[in-house]
Amino acid sequence: MSLLRVEGLGKEFGGVQAVENLSFSVAPGTVHSIIGPNGAGKTTLLNLLTGIHVPTAGGIYLRERELTGEPPYEYAAAGIARTFQNLQVFFNMSALENVMVGRYRHERCGLVAALLRFSSLARAERACRDAAGELLDFVGLGDYLGVRADAMPYGALKRLEVARALATEPQLLLLDEPAAGLNPTETQEFDALIGKIAGRGITVLLVEHNMRLVMGVSDHILVLDYGRKLAEGTAGEVRANPRVVEAYLGATVH
Question: Please, which pLDDT band fits residue 124 given cuts at 50, 70 and 90?
Answer without folding.
Answer: confident
